[in-house]
Amino acid sequence: MHLSLQYTGFWNEECDDTIIELSKLSIADQTHEVTVLDNFNDTSNRIATAKDYVLRRCNQTEPLPFDECYPDSQLKNCHKIGEGVYGEVFLWRARDGRARVLKIIPIAGNLKVNGECQKDFHEIISEIVIAMELSALRAPIAEIERHFDEGKDVEALNLQAIENATDAFNEVLAVRCVYGSYPSRLLDLWDLYDECKGSENDNPAILPVDQQYIVLELANAGQDLESYQFNNAEQAHALFLQVAYGLAVAEEAYQFEHRDLHWGNILIAPTEQKWATFVIRGRVVRVGRAGVRGAIIDYSLSRVALRLAPGDSAALYNDLAADDSLFDALGDYQFTVYRLMRDKLGNDWKNFEPYTNILWLHYTVDKMITALRYKRTNTKIHKHYIDKLKGIKSRILDYGSAAQFVLTDNEL
């Protein structure tokens, strides 16, 4: 069997580390720097704009009417499940029967939403690109797992073209750029959520009729780590390994740092699948799922480096240096991690420092020991895996990256 994948291990000595902060770059300007928009012109050969690039990622040439993409008649099996400063989140079962999460983000408008200025197109590029690239790392996993299910030996696989692969990141099903009035069905669901749970967001009905939006259609990956109830610590340990290996693969593929992996950004769903499969540095690794499937989400603070052409690369990242509020919060260990990241990076957020992933893994294992909900805490197996988690917590900060941790730690 021959497998091929366009996403190979990213970093090598021949790559020129050309760093671009897209959130501040005027992409329409011609400079000597390499950007993700280089060599991309529209049909009139004008210089590409950030909006052009977003539309290309959406497989569109122009924004589409909101009510044509998501007519009320197709939103019957839908309800609001969450929100953030960025916008609204709905769970929707489409006509194909698959449950999808709709993350709806107002963009490029003048009206403040939820107390914040709307992102412009150049500010949303990084989240879209990172989500799509990490999702694409799953491409070969299903075929590899079919190979194992058929009882074939891994040596029979031709992994020459696959350096890194994982399905630990949330699957992106579609990205759309739309405009127009918010669908009335979604407004009704917003009101229902507000009545039942209380919303901290502005009602989307305030948005103008020509408002533009980015809609991310994502796979439904389950409940977040904070709310999920595990059978015992064996499941938590299995989830931890899935997250650690996922981060390791992304480090190798894209010099990835999540930079905000709190327990709201790890989702869990029950599964009957026995194994999670990873490819890291061309080597297949399988980790027991113990009945849970993990997914990493939300890349609004994340950093990646993308190869654009031979010898050229660009980093996409969010410059957090001026965001004092992120570093001033006190209380949960989460807020300490932000300050530890800043110290490790010297507040220079363009740099690749995979130790930030180690900090978040330390945070995660600490939550698993001290704060998660377990059904059966008096069993031997629970106590055994709590001890394993405590062991990981005691030594993980000695590693420099998630990749180094999973590839060299002998007690996982």
UniProtKB/TrEMBL annotation:
Keywords: ATP-binding, Kinase, Nucleotide-binding, Serine/threonine-protein kinase, Transferase. Residues 75-412 form the Protein kinase domain. InterPro entries: GSG2_C (IPR024604), Kinase-like_dom_sf (IPR011009), Prot_kinase_dom (IPR000719). The keyword Transcription does not apply. Its EC number is 2.7.11.1. GO terms for molecular function: ATP binding; histone H3T3 kinase activity. GO terms for cellular component: cytoplasm; nucleus. One of its GO terms (biological process) is mitotic cell cycle. It catalyses: L-seryl-[protein] + ATP = O-phospho-L-seryl-[protein] + ADP + H(+); L-threonyl-[protein] + ATP = O-phospho-L-threonyl-[protein] + ADP + H(+). PROSITE patterns: PROTEIN_KINASE_DOM. Pfam families: Haspin_kinase. This is non-specific serine/threonine protein kinase. The lineage of its organism: Eukaryota, Metazoa, Ecdysozoa, Arthropoda, Hexapoda.
